[in-house]
Design brief:
The complex is a heterodimer.
Chain A lengths: L5 E3 L2 E3 L3 E3 L8 H10 L3 E8 L9 E6 L2 E8 L8 H14 L4 E7 L4 H12 L5 E5 L13 H4 L2 H14 L4 E4 L8 H9 L4 E4 L3 E3 L21 E4 L4 H13 L8 E4 L5 H9 L2 E6 L1 H6 L4 H15 L27 E5 L9 H9 L4 E4 L6 E4 L9 H5 L6 E5 L9 H6 L8
Parallel strand pairs in A: 3-4, 3-14, 4-7, 7-8, 8-9, 9-10, 10-13, 13-14
Antiparallel strand pairs in A: 1-2, 5-6, 6-12, 11-12, 15-18, 16-17
Chain B lengths: L9 H7 L10 H10 L7 H4 L7 H9 L3 H11 L3 H7 L6 H4 L12 H14 L14 E5 L3 H12 L3 E5 L8 H4 L8 H12 L4 E4 L10 H7 L2 E4 L3 E4 L12 E3 H11 L9 E5 L3 H12 L4 E5 L11 H9 L3 E3 L2 E9 L2 E14 L5 E13 L2 E4 L3 E3 L1 H6 L4 E2 L2 E2 L12 E3 L2 H4 L4 H23 L1 H4 L1
Classes of the chains: A alpha/beta, B alpha/beta.
Chain lengths: 422, 453
């Protein structure tokens, strides 16, 4: 069995799975149950000034019968009294000393408020702090949350205030509601943050009710922009994570990855792109804490299969393979091949290639089953047919190099090679 | 042993003849299945439907909550799409072709989804089709069955005024009179006919029999064209001794009585033998059992490989507790006091014949079944005399047409069972569409012959 324990700036957890700052981590009752279920750590729901929540608070995107592909919330930071939160945090730390207890913070925008809040939180025995620079709704209008994270200068100043007071590791959580997370990430690192986490939720409107004409979630006939998360945001989170992993400044600090992680596979992908731990929220909100079992089990089995002894063996491993487009090898060429024994004749490869790609699949009429074959000379190797095929491994992409040597775009241009070979 | 009616309580009748394929209870339940559909291109299910319903499209429309669009997609190909969803042998048509079968997965329940999409349209009388303004043409249709109704609807959409002459007192044809009651209720059949005719421009004259109450000559004089969709009806005789005994009935009239007189009124024996293994044989056997017969035995001279009914149909009979005797050729019906007492069958042996085929050889060995009722379901015969008397080109009573329903008499078209000898409802619906198209072309040509000469 592989060792899946994590060590994040000295904060140890039996596994790299933390619950992200959100409703599942807002009270002792939940956190204790999460720890009992096996979660490696929690980021306690953001503490800060007193707020008031509204009803309703959530909305989601369903796709082809699958519910909650994307999830949206307009809930604010913790609406429970600060003292109660602090008392409960201390109790959770005492009862589960082997689990990571990080507390998310969002103080009012001045040095004293931050110092005061940090002091109180560190007195609980919590192992680390996460700065909520990302909440996209409600707090932003008050100059907090994403309003901080969207401006590298303000972010740097707040991180400086925090570092003056903090004695435990500080993780700065980045907002994705920017064209690039790197400037704020750099500013935070330069200001002294010990780590980064990303992404927070993405500003969104999940939809409009076609009967009432009010976007959701509906709050008494009105709505507001919410924060989008869940499986739908994973690709965006992975991209942003990679930019942090590749930047020479931000790459110096460990990262806790967040954004649509629902399975151990998602987690492994985040870790391959540089995350040391991962944070989960939507999946736990949807299915409950019990999902931790397969998260750990699946990761462990995969690591055994790949020969990884510890998570350190693969964290960041895929980062160097993500390069700029002009570094890609133009001589690498693949051609789709349809396995006729596996084909169920649904025609999806044909119509997607015909209408959506390069007209490279031939239809030979049959009643009721047509036969589909690839026109090798027309296939550009785009993957579309393979992606839409409902049968595993029915369509495979076979390598037919256009040349033996590695040839990238810069070299291609330098040599003045002909364009439009198709 | 006795043949008698009124064997069961009202509750039992209701239970025995309740819907065999219950609809989806909820939208959610329908969506689970609808969302499984892969939305195939040039879909095998569509190609396997005689009316070419765009199945992936109507299923996709269910998933987008466009139920009106879904119903329109179905009805525009098959105006009896509601009834066909209940009576089609889908396992050998659309569902049988579903690509999931090739993945060893359950096929999409296309029929149930089709029912889901059409049922509300029929119940709530959605006006999905609009009739074009009258073009001043009149067409007579013989028979308010699937072919006739389909033809009439297609013609009416184009602004033709249609009169249907129906010999029975209700429309629907085979759907109303010839199919097991647990598949389609009489009430549904009525609603379906009403829905089809709700487009307007279709007048159904009931209790008017072709060749008796109305003649082709008259119709040809009064109308611009005539469509014959009178079906088949006469039960094939077995030509074995004892066929005239009291207690021997044919499946067609047996089912007709069930549909026409109500369940309690139809007499059934204690021990019933049904001869044949077609769809009608199954419908007769299962309904005999459901009417209270103690024992029902299907007798078939060939094997399961050759049986005309589908496996799903056979399973309905088996689940109802009917027995099947394969390779038994009925040779004589014996009676006592003029009433059926025994069915004598000769055992059939399979022998290898040339070319790897199997040959049926009737042996001397006999099986004697004690029975008080024999239901013959050896197929239906065309109305041969009717066809001959009108001097229509025909093949043993089946009207000969070109593929689009054109008969040997100018201005007279035909389709459905009276042409094909007896196929599915869905085949007749398609024939009606084809006929309507041919009629429209014919009437157009008649109007401006020079432009089409």
């Amino acid at each position: 069995m592989a060792d899946i324990s994590a060590n994040f700036l000295g904060i140890k957890s039996p596994n790299p799975f933390w619950l992200a700052s959100a409703p599942p981590t807002d009270k002792k009752l939940n956190v204790l149950r999460a720890f009992e279920a096996g979660w490696g750590g929690v980021v306690w729901k953001t503490l800060g000034s007193q707020i008031k929540n509204v009803s309703s608070r959530y909305s989601s995107i369903d796709y082809n019968g699958h519910r909650v592909m994307g999830f949206n919330n307009i809930e604010l930071i913790s609406d429970r009294p600060l003292d109660l939160n602090l008392k409960e945090i201390a109790e959770c730390v005492r009862l589960f000393p082997d689990r990571a207890m990080i507390v998310s913070l969002m103080a009012d925008n001045n040095r004293e408020s931050w110092h005061e809040l940090i002091k109180k939180v560190e007195d609980t025995g919590a192992h680390g702090l996460e700065l909520n620079f990302g909440c996209p709704h409600g707090m932003t209008e008050r100059g907090m949350g994403a309003a901080v994270g969207q401006d590298p200068d303000i972010a740097a100043r707040v991180v400086e205030w925090v570092m003056e007071a903090a004695t435990t590791p500080v993780i700065t959580k980045l907002t994705p509601n920017v064209h690039s997370v790197v400037p704020t990430g750099r500013a935070a690192v330069n200001a002294g943050t010990n780590a980064l986490s990303l992404i927070n939720t993405i500003q969104s409107v999940t939809g409009v009710d076609l009967d009432t004409f009010v976007p959701n979630p509906n709050v008494g006939g009105q709505s507001t922009f919410g924060g989008y998360c869940g499986p739908a945001v994973k690709p965006i989170a992975l991209k942003m994570l990679t930019t942090i992993s590749q930047d020479p400044v931000t790459a110096k600090v460990p990262v806790s990855g967040i954004g649509g992680i629902s399975t151990w596979k998602d987690a492994a992908e985040f870790m391959l792109l540089g995350a040391t731990t991962v944070q989960v929220c939507t999946a736990a909100m949807r299915y409950g804490f019990r999902i931790i079992e397969d998260l750990c089990d699946g990761l462990n089995n995969w690591m055994d299969e790949k020969g990884f002894k510890t998570i350190g063996d693969f964290i960041g491993r895929s980062v160097p393979t993500l390069t700029s487009w002009e570094e890609l090898d133009i001589n690498y060429h693949i051609i789709a091949k349809i396995n006729q024994d596996k084909c169920i004749h649904c025609g999806l490869c044909y119509i997607s290639c015909e209408d959506g790609a390069h007209q490279a699949i031939n239809l030979s009429y049959g009643n009721p089953y047509n036969t589909y074959t690839v026109k090798d000379e027309e296939c550009v190797g785009c993957n579309l047919c393979k992606l839409v095929c409902p049968v595993d491994n029915c369509i495979t992409m076979e390598v037919h190099r256009r040349g033996d040597e590695y040839l990238n775009w810069k070299e291609f241009q330098r040599r003045g090679l002909p364009l439009n070979d198709h | 042993m006795a043949v008698r009616n009124n064997r069961l309580s009202a509750e039992e009748y209701q239970q025995h003849f309740s819907d065999i394929h219950p609809p989806f209870e909820t939208r959610d339940a329908a969506l689970v299945e609808a969302n499984r559909c892969l939305f195939c291109y040039d879909a095998p299910c569509t190609k396997s439907c005689p009316t070419s319903i765009n199945v992936p499209k109507f299923i996709k429309q269910i998933t987008t909550d466009n139920l009106k669009g879904s119903a329109y997609t179905i009805f525009s190909s098959n105006i009896m799409g509601g009834g066909c969803a209940k009576v089609c042998p889908v396992e050998k048509l659309c569902e049988g072709a579903c690509v999931y079968n090739l993945m060893e997965e359950e096929a999409i329940p296309i029929a149930r989804l089709q029912r889901y999409a059409t049922e509300r349209a029929i119940q709530e009388k959605w006006p999905l089709f609009e009739r074009k303004p009258s073009i001043g043409k009149k067409v007579a249709v013989i028979g308010a069955g699937p072919a006739g109704l389909s033809c009439a609807h297609a013609l009416s959409r184009e602004g033709v005024d249609v009169t249907i002459y129906e010999k029975e007192s209700k429309g629907g044809g085979l759907m109303t009179y010839g199919i097991a009651a647990y598949k389609v209720t009489p009430q549904f059949c009525q609603e379906e006919v009403d829905y089809i005719t709700s487009i307007g421009g279709i007048d159904i004259q009931y209790n008017k029999e072709f060749g008796k109450d109305i003649t082709l000559d008259e119709l040809q004089r009064q109308y611009d064209a005539v469509y014959l969709g009178f079906g088949v009806g006469l039960a094939r005789q077995l030509y074995i001794p004892g066929e005239q005994l009291d207690g021997v009935v044919d499946a067609i009239s047996f089912i007709y009585d069930i549909r026409n007189s109500g369940f309690p009124a139809v007499p059934v024996g204690d021990q019933v033998a049904v001869i044949g293994m077609g769809m009608t044989a199954i419908d007769a056997a299962t309904q005999a059992k459901r009417l209270g017969a103690k024992e029902v035995t299907l007798v078939y001279r060939r094997t399961q490989q050759e049986m005309p009914c589908t496996e799903a149909e056979m399973n309905i009979a088996l689940l109802d507790g009917c027995k099947i005797i394969w390779l038994a050729a009925p040779t004589e019906i014996l009676g006592e006091d003029g009433k059926v007492a025994q069915l004598v069958c000769n055992v059939v042996k399979l022998e290898d014949a040339a070319g790897g085929r199997r040959q049926l050889v009737i042996t001397d060995e006999q099986i004697i079944l004690p029975v008080d009722m024999v239901i013959k379901a050896a197929g239906q015969m065309p109305f041969e005399q009717l066809v001959h008397s009108h001097e229509l080109n025909n093949d043993h009573g089946k009207i000969t047409t070109t593929s689009n329903g054109v008969t040997s008499i100018a201005g007279v078209f035909a389709g459905g069972d009276c042409v094909n000898g007896g196929k599915e409802v869905v085949d007749a619906v398609q024939a009606g569409k084809d006929g309507a198209k041919a009629i429209l072309e014919y009437m157009q040509n008649e109007e401006s012959p020079e432009s089409n000469s």
